[in-house]
Specification:
- The longest helix has 23 residues, at 118-140.
- The strands form six sheets. Strands 1, 4, 5, 7, 8, 9, 10 and 14 form an eight-stranded antiparallel sheet that branches.
- The protein is globular and about 105 Å long.
- The chain contains 14 helices and 47 strands.
- A hairpin with a 3-residue loop joins strand 34 and strand 35 (620-625).
- It is of the alpha+beta class and 824 residues long.
- Helix 5 (81-92) crosses helix 7 (118-140) and helix 13 (797-803) runs antiparallel to helix 14.
Length: 824
């Protein structure tokens, strides 16, 4: 099966029209695969052999024809989206980066006239390296099948790290009474360690002299894979640990960064166990030791740790520490008794270290100028996006829900309405640049013969693991009854399910297409009409649910989900709303700084504002809180409500505009509450925070979070290179029940469920510093706060008079304008 989903047949190419010859536009509208077919005479490139990446044949054809460009590689998902911000900046200056070949990129890097900054140069160098890798893969594939190319990953080590013989790269490892000479030998092409019981808890094995594993950085493009070949029938209490250099040779459990073990106490069953920094993250009971054949540890740039076997099955999974002790790590392998009564044995033949290309699958990346396709679920693992859904606290029997060539949900009775399956507790569908022409297409692939019923759900709020999609939501149910009849229905929010179709069979493929107009179901036997949904709006984040379903609680359920892919296509930027000719926009009111209504400074959780904050009548607010205050923050409180939402809220949003100094702001939080109190943590109707990550794998990036309560919250990480273009402006648009936060030029975030944002609300504002660790240090510099009613597009003079503040309303002028309008 392809690792990258099929590109949808229709994409909006108007933003690219100026970059392409007119004769190619109609062809490219059919998608990248069709473009390669038409332009190069390559047929069948859209269908990928099992084990290949989508577009391998197309890209090879482009390489052979000399037409490999950044645009082509990006269209097939090979260019990380985080790079496109820097590249598009060059494009805005008239440089055609998207159309550049590897040779053109190299010339750009040498051209002094471009005056590249460090960020642009790094992006060009990385893009060039990616194009070179595509060229190398195509060269390696000459005379070989695409599958052979895809299954031959580049290796950082031509020879195995260990191949059954002692070399200068390894040293004996013995702690806690372990003895290499007594318990270990290297013979017969293997390291053989046997610690008999009773032994005392001993550890004996080997350790690498030099670091051999470098943890992949966040945003990297390589997966590090360690493979272990050992005798699975004799293994007992074997440990494979990655440790920092300054802790080399010490007991693995006490010093590891990552620890993997086949563990078995004297009286217990064997388990495969994964731990990170002395915290066990996963444990699997080993009923069949054969599953350990070809054991491999995969470390991915997104922080995911996968432990699989030679059949490609994922056995357990975990996550790297956010703040690793070290990134360059030694390997220690040993037979290590967990207690004095348990023997330990390891017959290790080889250890292999490889790197493979990482196919990015982060649905939270910001959509730029080109469509982006990624795989949300590949049938091997739920991580990093999904969790089990069904019974409370995850109490689902393994035989009912498992991963074996896809997600398999099987229950003979009693679970027809328990909604066993998987769900995304965090948004995986982000509606970026969701203007005219935009779309998101979700593709679900099932084993139709093994699937009796399912529920697909999209929801804006968070949900519990047994709650199903909560409104606002879109739901599609498709069920085959015991009598063989099939029913399909869809419903929105709180409406009753309605029967839309009685298809002849369960579908193998279902697609949900989201556009600004609503949601369309694309599946054999289902009507193609569109269901309008008011929550498909720019900036909205949606959670995803895939659940097994029957028409009655007592009936059996069966669902086999093979794959979920998603293609996001950006739309046109909406035109700025303007009033009718000759009509002035609605007025803007300066709220801060305002000498006539000064804001009240405050410090919380031990922070003294007089020491860490400063208010200047011209420069605004400056805060610099030192490290050490748990939950400490400083800021200002509005002297009166900043938003009085009257009947006008039913016609147009109310906007608050804050301007920060981006160079002096690490973390800020804005809160609105009907109560005028400095500490709004508990009583706020809205909390919006923008916080820079100070340490760890994601250091330098920012996290934008919009919160109403436990269920109504949305959070998204923004790369440092994207935040570099932020000018400090933050706008907050209030509408009945919803909020839209916008960082112009960066991203937009929308949230629902804000029941307090309604006609009659009077909201005070607190603006305070916020650090990512909760105990500082943190800086914040606020320059201005303005407020206004948003000018509706095409607003007439009469409408303007109806939307101004009461004190600015002129009754006589209103009557004059009203009479003039009636006469016209």
């Amino acid at each position: 099966m392809s690792d990258t989903p099929e590109v949808p047949r229709k994409i909006d190419l108007r933003p690219l029209a100026r970059l392409l010859p007119a004769c190619l536009l109609a062809v490219l509208m059919a998608g990248p695969a069709a473009f390669a077919e038409e332009a190069l005479g390559v047929r069948g490139v859209g269908a990928n052999p099992p084990g290949t990446q989508a577009g391998d044949a197309s890209l090879e054809a482009l390489v052979r024809s000399g037409k490999l460009t950044v645009r082509a590689v990006a269209a097939f998902g090979r260019i990380p989206t985080r790079m496109l911000a820097s590249l598009s900046g060059l494009g805005a200056g008239g440089v055609d980066v998207l159309g550049a070949t590897p040779e053109a990129l190299a010339r750009m890097l040498e051209d002094p006239a471009l005056a590249l900054d460090a960020r642009q140069r790094a992006a060009l160098e990385e893009a060039l390296a990616i194009l070179h890798r595509v060229q190398e893969a195509a060269g390696a594939g000459a005379g070989a099948s695409p599958a052979a190319v895809a299954l031959a990953p580049a290796s950082v080590q031509a020879e195995p790290l260990f191949k059954g013989e002692m070399t200068e790269a390894w040293q004996p490892h013995a702690v806690r009474g372990g003895d290499f000479d007594a318990f270990a030998r290297v013979e017969g092409g293997a390291l053989r360690v046997a610690v008999a019981s009773p032994s005392g808890a001993m550890t004996t094995g080997l350790k690498t002299v030099a670091p051999v594993v470098k943890l992949p950085p966040a945003g990297g493009d390589q997966v590090v894979r360690l493979g272990f070949d050992f005798d699975v029938e004799t293994v007992r209490n074997a440990v494979f640990a990655l440790v920092p250099g300054d802790q080399l040779g010490k007991w693995d459990w006490s010093v590891h960064e990552i620890w993997l073990a086949v563990e078995q106490t004297a009286d217990g069953a064997p388990h495969l166990v994964l731990a990170v920094q002395r915290q066990v993250q996963a444990r699997l009971k080993l009923d069949d030791p054969g599953v350990l054949a070809g054991l491999a540890l995969e470390l991915r740039p997104d922080g995911l740790i996968l432990v699989g076997n030679g059949e490609g099955r994922i056995l357990i999974e975990g996550r790297m520490a956010n703040a690793p002790v070290a990134t360059d790590l030694h390997l220690q392998v040993s037979a290590s008794s967990p207690d004095a009564r348990a023997p330990a044995r390891l017959d290790l033949r080889t250890v292999r270290l490889d790197t493979v290309r990482f196919v990015p699958n982060d649905p939270g990346v910001l959509l730029e100028d080109v469509p982006l396709t990624l795989t949300l679920f590949d049938g091997r693992t739920m991580a990093p996006h999904f969790q089990r859904h069904g019974l409370p606290r995850g109490g689902i029997a393994p035989e009912k829900l498992s991963l074996r060539e896809g997600l398999r949900v099987v229950s003979e009775k009693g679970d027809g309405k328990n909604l066993l399956g998987i769900y995304a507790p965090e948004p995986v569908v982000w509606l970026d640049r969701f203007g005219p022409g935009a779309s998101v297409r979700l593709r679900f692939e099932f084993d139709a013969a093994e699937t009796r019923g399912f529920r697909l759900g999209l929801a804006t709020p968070h949900s519990l693991s047994d709650g199903g999609p909560n409104p606002p939501r879109f739901v599609l149910d498709w069920v085959r009854a015991p009598d063989g009849t099939t029913r399909a229905s869809r419903w929105l929010d709180r409406e009753e399910a309605r029967l839309d179709a009685t298809p002849a069979a369960m579908p193998a493929v279902v697609e949900l297409e989201l556009t600004p107009q609503g949601v369309r179901v694309i599946a054999e036997g289902f009507p193609t009409d569109l269901a309008p949904w008011g929550d498909v709006r720019t900036g909205q984040g949606l959670r995803l649910f895939i659940l097994a379903l029957a028409d009655d609680r007592a009936h059996p359920v069966s669902m086999v989900l093979k794959r979920i892919s998603m293609t996001r296509t950006p739309g046109q930027k909406p035109a700025q709303p303007l009033p009718a000719p000759g009509v002035e926009p609605l007025p803007v009111t300066r709220l801060f700084p305002d000498a006539g209504a000064p804001w009240e400074p405050f410090g919380l959780a031990g922070v003294d504002f007089a020491k860490f904050g400063h208010l200047d009548p011209d420069k605004g607010l400056t805060v610099a809180v030192e490290r050490g205050f748990s939950g400490g923050r400083a800021g200002i409180l509005s002297p009166a409500p900043v938003a009085r939402l009257d009947q006008r809220i039913l016609r147009t949003p109310y906007r608050l505009v804050l301007r920060f100094d981006p160079a002096a702001t690490d973390g800020a939080q804005v809160m609105l509450s009907p109560h005028r109190v400095a500490d709004m943590q508990k009583g706020s109707l809205l909390a919006l925070s923008l916080v820079r990550t100070a340490e760890g794998r994601e250091a330098g990036s920012y996290v934008l979070t919009l919160t109403r309560d436990y269920y109504a919250y949305w959070s998204r990480r923004i790369p440092a290179e994207v935040m570099a273009r932020w000018d400090g402006m933050l706008t907050i648009d209030l509408s009945p029940g919803s909020v839209v936060a916008d960082l112009p030029g960066v991203t937009t975030m929308r949230g629902t469920g804000f029941i307090g944002i309604a006609k009659g609300a009077e909201l005070s504002m607190a603006i305070q510093s916020r650090s990512d660790a909760g105990n500082g240090p943190v800086r914040m510099a606020l320059r201005q706060v303005d407020a206004q009613w948003v000018t509706p597009d095409g607003m007439t003079a009469l409408e303007r008079m109806e939307l101004v503040d009461l004190q600015d309303f002129d009754p006589e002028a209103y009557l004059d304008v009203l009479i003039d309008a009636q006469e016209k």
